[in-house]
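Recall that a protein's primary structure is simply its ordered list of amino acids. Everything else, from secondary elements to tertiary packing, is in principle encoded there. The following example makes that idea concrete.
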Amino acid sequence: MKRVVLTGLLVMAVAACSGGAAKTPGEKAPPEQALAGGTRVRATIQDAVSSQSNEKGQTLRAIVSDNVNGAHGGVVIPAGSIAKLTIAQLEPGNDQKNPGGQLALTVSSVTVNGAEYPVSAELEPVPFHLEVRTTSTNEAKGGSAARRDVIVSAGTPIVFALTNSLKVSAR
């Protein structure tokens, strides 16, 4: 009899200590943490961009620089999280109609604790510089034109503001 009681107690103790125990119907999923629209996120672009080698539609990575806290003070987006950027426009400058070049990036998602969340955000203008290259033209024999390649260096800091709220599952 003692052996049966001890075995029963042992089984109950193992079940109580088990981290993989099934949830009862009354248990709730982990709470969500939220960021309001307008929340600013600082990040650093990890991939260099050039109008000579990149094109519209390609994706880039940026690493979130600082923890982003929610309204209640908890960290919603930890520093080191990855933001995914997409090249929306990338055109070199030229002598005729676009001397300064064009660059537009969009933020499409943020990965938090291994889970990717789509975001809608306004990205502040991304700093870039122009590298001038001379190219030959067919218009006049021996003619040349200056092409100004748009360049964004890896390590360039960016800031974006969420346009909608973002809900992230708490871990």
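The radius of gyration is 26 Å. The first helix runs from residue 2 to 17.
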